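Subject: JmjC domain-containing protein structure
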Amino acid sequence: MACRVKVVGQVERVDGESLSYAEFVRRFMAPNRPVVLTGLTSSWRARKDWTLSGSGDRRRPDLGFFAQNFPSPLVQVADCSSRDLTDQKRLEMSMQEFIDHWVGGAHGASSDGDRDGSLLYLKDWHFVKEYPDYIAYTTPTFFVDDWLNMYLDSHPIHRDSDIANHKNEINCSDYRFVYMGAKGTWTPLHADVFRSYSWSANVCGRKQWFFLLPSQSHCIFDRNMRSSVYNLHDDVSEKQFPEFSKTEWLECIQEQNEIIFVPSGWYHQVHNLEDTISINHNWFNAYNLHWVWNLLYEDYKVAKEYIEDIRDICDDFEGLCQRNLAANTGMNFYDFFVFIVRFALANVIELYHLQQPEVATLSTETAHHLVYNLTSIRSVASKMTKTEAFTTENHLCSISEDNRSAFSNIKQILEEESFRRLSMTVSKAYDHIDSGQRSLKSSTSYLKGCSSVICLKSDCNVVDHITSLVDEVCGPEDLVRLIDRALSDG
C-alpha cells in the first residue's frame, strides 16, 4: 500500500528484558514517547494456545482453538470497508460467525452474502472480563501502574442511574482487549480513548503503525477543529484539511511477540500486514493524568457550547452538560472526581504506612512514586476548582447523591470493600514495581482494621490519621487541602 504521508523517522526498538522500570519512565513514559519493546512475551500462554506454526518462524492464528474454547455469544466487529462517522461500521456477531467469515474470506468466499468481500476485524473484546480463569498473559512491569483498570476492577465508572445503563457498564467494564484480524484489516487515524496510554502486543502477525506528534495534531483537523482525517492513504482534501501537508510521521513495523507503547495524544493509524492477534490495554496514571483532564475539559466546553441556547430554560443546565459529556467522552467531571479522590486516598494510605518505623526498610523509591502521584492529582484537582461545574451553586444542585457520597465521606469510603480492593491492588502494583519481578505477588490478607496490605500493626490507626487531615471532601478544594496536609506530614 502506497504511503501518502511524510515519514521522518522510525519508532525506537528496545530490549524490554534489559530495561529497568525507572529507565522506561525516564525515556518513554514521562516524556511521552513511543517505543517498541522486545523479549517480554516468552512466558505467555497465548503464544502457544492461540497460534499455529506458519512458514519459517512465523506463527498464525489458531481460529479453531478460539471457536472451541471461547464461544463468545457476542463480539464486536469492525467492517473495515465501511465508514461510520469517524470510525468503521460496527457489527455484533458470535465468535463462530466471525471465524466462519474469516475462513470463508481466506478461500475467496464469504459465509454471509450481505458482507461478501468485506474485511472484518474483531476489536475491543473484553477477554479478561469474559474469561477470568484463563490467564493468557501477564502484564509487563512497565504497565502495571494502571489506574484505569485497577479502578474498574472494583468500581463502576458511572454512578448516576441515567448514565449507568447496562450497555454502558459492559463497554466500560475494563480497558483490556483482544483484537483479531486478517491481513488487510486496519484501524483509522485516531487518538486513544481518554487520551490514555496504550500498549499493544502482537501474539502473532505484523502491524504497520504511523504516529503523529501531539504538537502537530491540529494539522489533521479542518478549520473548525470538528472533522479530522479518516485514512492516511486516501486523497486527503487540501481544501478541507489545509494543514495536513505539513504533518511529519513516525513509522513502525511491529513484529510478532513485540509490544508497542503508545503515548498520550499521539494520533496513529494501524494496518495488519498479516493475519494478526494482539492484546491491548488502555491505561493512565500520574504521568498522563493531565492529558485525561485536558480532554474532559475540552470536550466539556464543546458539550456546553452546543446547548448554551437552552441554559435559561433548563432546570439543571450543568447536569445536562455532564450527562452529555459522559455520553460523548465516556466519563464526566463527577465520574473523574470520584476516581481521583479514591486514588488520592489509596496513595495517602500507602505513604502513611511507608513512614512507619516498622516498614522503614522498604524502598524510598516507592515513597517518591507515591509523592509524585499525589502531586499529579493535586495539580489536576487545582484546575478543577476553576470550572463552573464545581462552583458552589452548581456543585450543590448538579451532583447526584450517588456521586456525592462516593467522594465526600472519607470514613465511609475507607470502610467500603470496593475501596479496600482498590487499595490492595495499588499496594501490590507498587510493591511489584519496586521488586522488579515479572509477575504480581499473590494476594495478602488485610490485617484487622487496616486498609493496606503492608501494614504490620493489628491496631493500625490509618483511618483516624486520614480523617484528621480532612473529614469530608466537598469539592476539589478539599482534595487539594487533603493532599497538602498528607505531604506536609511526611
